[in-house]
Amino acid sequence: MEHIKETLKGFHDSWRLVKPIVYVVRSPGVLNRVLQCSVINGALFIGSILFFNKLVDPFLHRLGGGLGAYLEPIITFLYYICWLYPVYIVSFVLTTFWVQDIFDEAFKHFYKGTTAQSKPLTPAEFVSYLVRRIVMIAIFLIQCMVFTYLPFPFGRIIEIMHYSLLYSYYCFEYITMALNKGLAESIEMFEYNWSYFLGFGLSFTMVIITWPGIMSSGAFCLLFPFLVLTSVPAQVDLKKRKGTRLPIFAVSLALTNKIFDYVV
């Protein structure tokens, strides 16, 4: 019953938009970053997909005969390789930096007077953290993909749970990093609060999975800044180390450590 309450609390907090919206409106720098994320991911990237799907592709189909069938795969390939994928890469990289700026300003505002309880990571420790994180999340995504082969609806439900937890981790990792928490401590905090984070990431996941194909990537980059903004003032106990710990990253972390022990 306690886990259900925590899941509902997380879901509710993910929709508590009043404070973040008021803060964005009153912060010109943050508002500018949010608008930049919206333009490059919404208007440019998603707009490019809609332009091709709604205008270019139907036009090729109307050509009739063998010409349209001949040109369609060539033009589609060139459009994606020469325009859409480069736009996605650029938008993803820029969004990464802009979301960090958004979080930094929001953290200063909502965590006034808060100081990190741990020493800052050294450059070497920070690089190690990033590399381990990338490997761990890659393994976690493979784990998620494996579960999709389970019979419906079990595979689908587990997949949604995995992505809900992962998207929440993406958000709250900004906070643990700002508080100078290492990867192991960050994972421990997350696994003790798993039910809250499941609820927090659920609505975002349900929105993302409704977008087809590559458009889901654009939707993620478009909406993620808003999820990060709602995570900063969220009512979650980051010091909680009691109750049931769900080892959702246990396999990923164990394999990551094995890989690094073998390589290093």
Beta-strand portion reads under 5%
Secondary-structure-derived class: mainly alpha
Number of helices: 10
**Residues in helices, as a percent range:** over 70%
Taking all Cα atoms into account, the compactness measure Rg is 21 Å
The poorly predicted ranges are none
Order of helices and strands: HHHHHHHHHH
Mean pLDDT over the residues: 87
Oligomeric state of shown chains = single chain
Care to count the β-strands?
Answer: 0
Give the overall shape. globular
Structurally, how many domains make up the residues? 1
How are the SSEs placed, and which strands pair?
Elements: H1 2-14, H2 18-26, H3 28-62, H4 65-110, H5 123-147, H6 154-178, H7 183-192, H8 194-208, H9 215-231, H10 250-263
Please describe what this structure looks like:
The chain is mostly helical and 264 residues long. The chain has one domain. 79% of the residues lie in helices and 0% in strands. The chain contains ten helices and no strands. The protein is globular. The chain starts with a helix and ends with a helix. The model has no long low-confidence stretch (mean pLDDT 87).
